[in-house]
Amino acid sequence: MAYRIGVDIGGTFTDLILVDDLGTVFQIGKVLTTPADPAAGVERGVRDLLKAAGAPARAVTQVVHGTTLLTNALIERKGAATALITTRGFRDTLEIGREHRYDMYDLFIERPAPLVPRHRRYELRERVLEDGTVVQPLDLEEADRLVDTLLREDIEAVAVCFLHSYRAPAHEQAVGALIRSRAPQWACALSHEVVSEIREYERTSTTVANVYIQGVAARYLTRLQEGLKALGIEGPLFIMQSTGGICSVETACRLPIRVVESGPAAGALAAAHYGRLAGRPALVSFDMGGTTAKACLVEQGEPLVAPEFEVARVYRFKRGSGLPIKVPAIEMIEIGAGGGSIARVDRLGLLTVGPDSAGADPGPACYGRGGVEPTVTDADLVLGYLDPGFFLGGRLRLDREAALRAITERVAAPLGLDPVQAAWGIHQVVNENMASAIRVHAAERGKDIRRFPLFAFGGAGPVHAHRVARILRCPAVISPLGAGVVSALGFLVAPLVFDFVRTVPSRLEAIDWEAVRAALREMEREGRQILSEVVPGDQVTFRRWADMRYRGQGHEIRVPLPDGELGPGSEPALVQAFEQTYASLYGRTAPGVPVDAVSWRVAAEGPRPVLRLPAASAGRDASGTPDLAGALKGRRAAYLPECRRFATVPVYDRYRLVPGQAFPGPAVVEEEESTVVVGPDGRVRVDDWLNLVIEVNERPARGEA
Fold first, then answer.
1. Does the domain at residues 80-212 carry the CATH identifier 3.40.50?
2. Distance (Å, whole) CA 16 – CA 140
3. How far apart are CA 578 and CA 555, in angstroms?
């Protein structure tokens, strides 16, 4: 028997899942995250997971992992003391940025401070033009003297980013070789190796961020590898990338910037996987955990991918206030709404929820770990949506009286409300916040959210999904088995992937096809070489795109390239592909405007892993028909806003529901890591993959806005 393990470290909980290759084992686990030493929580969770499944550690053939540790290192500025070496005259590129005010009406606007302060930014005389022509050669003696200067400073890492090195990297390579020979103890990153793409600010920011966290990544991943080996696991450790593919630990240590958004990416992959199985290639991935909620659009069975993202925002949920990272990532929106989001009454006397969170320590008031602030989880408990004796399968007993007391003192009393009314207000405010953010996210991408089912997972997602779908008028809610740890399952459906980009700018009518073909061949060769450590060369496949724009526009869109060899005569097909993509994003095209191609991209991929989910046979009577009565755990009082009161609703055991069963709302369905709450207008059926599919009534219910 061979097993695989997926591990996702979140802000509050660490989620784990163990499956076997035959589809007979589907063991899930959840432990509190240990922020001081995240690897310790992973090791404890893996140990408990193996024990619960009765699986020997030596039979684990693969562990796939994602973490927020690197994101936190950037946010908290806990990386290496870093120096930047750049072209003379461009020392302040990091400071100048895009000269863009992300909030034009904020008189006290704050910009993200560069990771490298000005006194650690150094210049060298060298200059390369945008076409690769060298107009001022590099002075190696000057570079050698600069290394002498750096050796006298308290430096741990060096980023090298010269102007237009994406076209002619020789100067960066020479300085990199000098640094690595004279100061091998330093981490060193060259911009053309990190992101070989146009735009010096984004390229510099990305290169600096990469080398800034290299030491953090190496120490953590080495520590985790050793911990897993100490448990007896001999299979390799792989790391999820921000694009949704996995890579080796060696690659993650060399290019840690590619795995910064690893955790959120896994959830979107899991949603896409279940959507393909259920015949729903278009849906919204809705992941609500203890700290934040994340949403991602999935179309044609794949999550949307953005060419860049931001980290360490001054205002966490305000675009433009962070450091740009010029590497592809699954495109999603993060919302300050999770089970631990804190509710309060603001200075205007209004109820607000989040974005700050009680996290894992001390956690919500109901955890009994010292928390006194009312949170979304406290509200859900007071409303009867959560069972205080069955939270995390009974491993963490919730204190309803503590939750009621926190809501009464901090929210109900200041607003002059009944505590239950205050709890419902908290619940619905966070629903509205999430629905509003998802609606805007879809509209900005030209999508009609009303045609996308909501795929709900995470510890708190299924509790809130029905009401969120009602607000958005989504046609259905889908909640999978093990919804609380589905992000961890996403790690197990991810193929080995590595992305490349080369900038070869040109007008489409005068394109240098030989240069383009050479760039594509080079990227494919590098991709096959990197993946060959794990995947046989004949199993590596490639996907290709071009970054294109109408002439005169400032930014590009990513356009899939047609199959086959590109060359003279390919221009009409490229224009057609560009206009189709452009119209899908903006609803129109600009006929007669010429098109330019800027950069070319290749993704090298290994085969997609096969994940066999366990077949369900329990819960059927002797005749083989679904026996719903056997899945009924009991009944309890839950608040129904349609009635403005508590009502007794059935509570079903998630593990005894099987394909073919159906029942109406209102209802509650419980599993160890999550709870599904179904409103009175919903009707639930269990599909062939053990998903709960809730058809949502679009008509607004009495008592709701």
1. yes
2. 51
3. 14
Task: Dig out the tokens for 379 from the structure.
Answer: 């509200």
Relative to beta strand 454-457, strand 283-288 is parallel
SS3 566: coil
The neighbour count for residue 699, using CB atoms within 10 Å, is 9
**Are the CB atoms for 342 and 302 separated by under 8 Å?**
no
Buried b (16+ CB within 10 A) or exposed e, 448-461: ebeebbbbbbbbbb
Q: Is 232 left (phi over 0), alpha (psi -120 to 50) or beta?
A: left
Q: What confidence score (pLDDT) does residue 25 get? A: 85
690: closest CA among 651, 660, 666, 670?
A: 660
Q: Which residue has the tokens 């994003």?
A: 585
* Residue 292 identity (one-letter amino acid): T
* Nearest by Cα to 201 from 115, 81, 97: 97
C-alpha distance from residue 56 to each of 50, 53, 68, 128, 175 (Å): 7, 9, 28, 57, 49
The answer to whether 114 and 94 are in contact (CB under 8 A) is: yes
Three-state SS letters, 143-175: HHHHHHHHHCCCCCEEEEECCCCCCCCHHHHHH
Pairing of strands 323-325, 309-311: antiparallel
Residue 540 tokens read as 């590596």
pLDDT digits (tens, 9 = 90+) for 631-642: 999 999 999 998
Q: In CATH, what class is 3-73+217-259? A: alpha beta
Do residues 496 and 606 touch, judged by C-beta distance below 8 A? yes
Rounded to an integer, what distance in angstroms lies between the CA atom of residue 140 and that of residue 136?
12
Closest by CA to 445, choosing from 602, 245, 284, is 284
Q: Do domains 3-73+217-259 and 80-212 have the same CATH topology?
A: no
Query: Helices marked H in 458-570 — which ranges?
Result: 461-472, 486-490, 513-531
Enumerate the β-bridge partners of residue 159: 84, 189
CA dihedral 16, 278, 263, 671 (to 10 degrees): -40
Query: What global pTM score does this model have?
Result: 0.85
Residue by residue, DSSP assigns 198-230 as S-HHHHHHHHHHHHHTHHHHHHHHHHHHHHHHH
Q: Which amino acid is at 649?
A: V
Q: Which of 196, 231, 190, 219 is nearest to 63 (CA)?
A: 231
Low-confidence ranges of the chain (pLDDT < 70): 11-12, 316-317, 613-626, 697-705
The pLDDT assigned to 101 comes to 81
Say which CATH topology domain 267-337+436-491 has: Nucleotidyltransferase; domain 5 (3.30.420)
Torsion angle (degrees, nearest 10) of CA 340, 341, 344, 348: 180
> How many Cα atoms sit within 13 Å of 449 on the Cβ side?
26
Structure tokens at 399: 């204190």
- Which residue stretches of 323-418 are H helix? 376-382, 400-407, 413-415
Among candidate residues 14, 493, 39, 672, the one with its CA nearest the CA of residue 289: 14
Q: Which of 380, 383, 343, 377 is nearest to 360 (CA)?
A: 377
Give the long-range contacts of residues 403-409, CB within 8 A, separation 24 or more: 403/364, 403/365, 403/366, 403/374, 403/377, 403/378, 403/379, 405/365, 406/365, 406/371, 406/372, 406/373, 406/374, 406/375, 406/378, 407/343, 407/374, 407/378, 407/379, 407/382
pLDDT at 620: 41
Q: Report yes or no: 563 and 541 within 8 Å, Cβ to Cβ.
A: no
Question: Residue ranges per domain, the chain?
Answer: 3-73+217-259, 80-212, 267-337+436-491, 341-428, 497-605
Can you tell me the distance from the alpha carbon of 183 to that of 80, in angstroms, rounded to the nearest whole number? 15
Cis peptide before 591 (omega within 30 of 0): no
Amino acid at 647: A
Rounded CA separation 603/387 (Å): 46
